[in-house]
Amino acid sequence: MSGGWNTIESDAGVFTFLLNNLGAHDVQFEELLTLEPEVLAALYPVYGVIFLFKYPTDAPYAATDKPLDGTFDHEAAERIFFAAQTIQNACGTQALLSVLLNKDREGDGGSTSAGGEGEGAGIDIGKSLREFRDFTMVLPPEFRGEALSNSELIRDVHNSFAKSSPFVDETQRTSGEPEDAFHFIAYTPVNGTLYELDGLQPAPISHGPCGADEFPVKVMDVLQRRIARYEMSEIRFNLMAMVRDLRVRAREMGDGEALEREEQKRRDWQFENALRRHNFVGFASAVLKGVVGSKLSEGGDGAYEEVG
After folding, report:
1. Distance linking the first and last C-alpha atoms of the chain
2. pLDDT digit string (tens) for 239-277?
3. Where is this site: Important for enzyme activity (predicted)?
4. Is 278 a catalytic residue?
5. What is the DSSP secondary structure assignment for residue 47, as one 8-state letter?
6. Which one of the listed residues 91, 158, 207, 210 is annotated catalytic?
7. CA 191, CA 78: separation in Å to the nearest integer?
8. In terms of CB atoms within 10 Å, which of 38, 54, 107, 179 comes out highest?
């Protein structure tokens, strides 16, 4: 392994199994196709959301004195998990951890991380991530980012969901047209405050008081304002919510149909994740050669003879 971090897709199935493979229990992601607060509230308990957007290149992104929305809370970085982003291609996993590590049921924010309301306020993040969190919380944000980049567990799990790319498009290197860059950030209520956690910013961004029951309305207001800063033609956004495993709720309610739907969704996600990792070049080549061989054996007109 080269030690680098590969790009992963913004997909609920990818992020759910990434959570599970990191050791977190009874938690998943759901993709949101609307900014209606009621849709998010229906998934309660909601631990946070991850937002993907086009990285702006027409102006400096990282603020130094005041963000475009909200206020920097430098002291919060000492109380909650916030890490500076020090590596490329890992912002999705870093956003995931920004929510997850602030919801540790046994950690400092366990009982109050979602406003201190409801039994679903915390997550069992597992032994490995709990040890990572406990180790890094004594460090400043920039060193937390370095610790994350050097974590073999987190990097290996992240890279296990990288999409296979057997072909290299040389035109992308010489066309002169810059590729659009995208960035993940997290929003989560921690100790009664709605925080925006973005490793490219100098500190957590506070968006004011927020309990678990207020989170759907307040976070959607923030996202609406953020999206409004883009041109109307820009629609490349993605929003996923980190919620309690929906199978748990189905079992608690005795809803067999809902449970089967969720189990089928997991099976579909597993199949899709396997396809993402598989390189089909060899398979396609074997099929093509088989077709050509079959045609030639049938006495083709010679059109296939040039195929190597």
Report:
1. 33
2. 999 999 999 999 999 999 999 999 999 999 988 888 866
3. 198
4. no
5. E
6. 91
7. 13
8. 107
